[in-house]
Design brief:
215 residues, alpha+beta, two-stranded parallel ribbon, 3 helices, 14 strands
Length: 215
Amino acid sequence: MNIKFFSAALGLALTATVMSASAQKEYKEGVITYTIESPQGTIDAKTYFKGDSSAYSMQQGPADIKFIGTNEGTFFAVLVDVPVASIKKAAIATPAELEDFKSKSPDFTFTPTTETKVINGFKCKKVTVKDTKSGSNYDAWVTNDITIPTNMMSTHFKKAGGIPVQFTTLQMGQAININLKSITGDKVPAGIFAIPADFEKVTISDLKAMGGGGN
């Protein structure tokens, strides 16, 4: 082989590798906006992430609802604030409730495909998803344009081969469709993962009995 040609080809390959690596943006802290479609309707939810913690908030009727948790499932809480009814409840999962959540979580396996498309500005590739517990199959689109810590929305997609952008996941056995609309590297608000002192602390079971919801 011509040595000069080989050197030039190697140089181009290395340059392409560096350019590809530099194109991937890493977020260690920030805010993601997801669109969530469920039988209850379609809403936008903001997810805040930093380190091993994440929180997402949404509006449901007169209620402001926020979910707080750790990425490994060692802590989970639902904060419900209904100003018109003077209700402020913080439902904190007990160890038994956390175990129950884990037992009801899907067990996804992933198979990559050759299909690609751009979704909300992200270059995505399609993977087929199978829940080995139920036998259900789904499609997911993941990207390698960015890296972010796992959050409560993406916790079941750690082995998907990329960051999930358009995907279906399960919450308490119910399938919900999620679309990652945008992401910023903004600093998360101070105290976003804390429970305010003026919230009454209850269990998840207590909240459900009052007509609230859990994860």
